[in-house]
Write a structure and sequence with these properties.
By secondary structure, the protein is α/β, with parallel strands linked by helices. It is about 45% helix and about 15% strand. It is built from eight helices and eight strands, in the order E-H-E-H-H-H-E-H-E-H-E-E-E-H-E-H. The structure holds zinc ion.
């Protein structure tokens, strides 16, 4: 079973992916991690990748597909994979068809105002990296190590809005592309509430626990 996770940054995609991989034995494949691993390993493809990335150029789809196709034939992917961060365009989605059957695209839906509200409330411990939210934590220091809490530039409203704009532009065509196998779930509730319908849906698809 291969699935694609679609959802805005800050919609709770990472948390959901973790639950799915744990319960269904799927492997989460992020192109970013994959590229870094390939480069660190010094393979021929890794060297090619590096030449594009060093010049600040986008990695061509053809090369990405080649690396992905190698990765998904490894034994740990026997039960299937969750594609994370790929495809980002319809052209990539078309190319992906040639190497993997996509059973479903799971779309995590959260109103942009809520994503913004959660993001601007986020605080990070400067010492241990623990994440807090001013929505449920009033302290100025970390409860674990007393480190000072701060707001990342990434979580400032303008930055969040910009990211959401980019997301909307790139993802809307993909939602259309996968409309015949789209499963939409709201992440307004708790992570557990979000996961429950997804889990039932995947069990229905034939995913084995
Ligand atoms: Zn801390």
């Amino acid at each position: 079973m291969n699935i694609i996770l679609l959802g805005a940054p800050g919609s709770g995609k990472g948390t959901l992916a973790k639950k799915i991989t744990k319960d269904f034995g799927l492997v989460q494949i992020s192109t970013g991690d994959l590229f870094r691993g390939e480069i660190a390993g010094g393979s021929e493809l890794g060297l090619k990748l590096k030449s594009y990335m060093d010049k600040g150029q986008l990695v061509p789809d053809e090369l990405t597909i080649k690396i992905l196709s190698q990765r998904i034939t490894k034994p740990d992917c026997k039960k299937g994979v969750i594609f994370d961060g790929f495809p980002r365009t319809v052209a990539q989605a078309e190319a992906l068809k040639n190497i993997a059957k996509i059973d479903s695209a799971v779309l995590i839906d959260l109103p942009f105002e809520e994503i913004e509200r959660r993001a601007v409330a986020r605080r990070v411990c400067s010492k241990c990296g623990e994440i807090y939210s001013t929505l449920d934590y009033a302290g100025k220091n970390c409860a674990k190590c007393h480190g000072e809490l701060f707001q990342r530039d990434d979580d400032k409203l303008e930055t969040v809005r910009l990211r959401l704009e980019v997301y909307e532009k790139t993802t809307t065509p993909l939602i259309d592309f996968y409309s015949d196998r789209l499963f939409k779930v709201s992440s307004l509730g708790s992570p557990e509430d979000t996961y429950k319908p997804v889990k039932n849906f995947l069990l229905g698809l034939g995913g084995k626990k």
